[in-house]
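Sample pair:
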Amino acid sequence: MADKSLANKIVNLREEGNITQSELARRLGLDKSSMSKIESGSRKVSTDELKRISEIFEVSTDYLLGNTTDRNGHTPSWATNDDKKDLKRFLEENANGMTYGGEGLTDEEQKQVRRVLEGLFWDKQKQKDSRK
C-alpha cells in the first residue's frame, strides 16, 4: 500500500489547480489507470514521478512527503510572517514579466529565476538579521 497522505496531497493540489486526472497523468507520462491508483493510494510514486509532481504544482518534495507544511520548502524556520510577506512583495516586484534578449521566459525558466531570487532574498535577510 502506498502513502495515503501523499495521495491526498496530490488530489488536493490537482483539484486546486483545476487539473483533471487525465491531464495530470498525461503531464507525468502515465496512463489514467496508473494515475487513479496513485491517487487512491494503491500504487507507490517513483522518485522521478514525485519530483515531476513537485515541479508541476510548484511545491517541494518535502511538502508532498509530509516532512514540512511549507509548500515551497525554501522558507527558513526562523522566517517571520513579515519576512514571508516581504518575500512575496520582493518576488512580485522582481520576478514577474521577466524577459531575456527581448523574449519571455518559459515556465521552467521562470521557476528557476524565482528559486534563485528566493535564495538571494533569504541570504540577504539572514545577513540583515545578524547585524541587529
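The longest helix spans residues 107-130.
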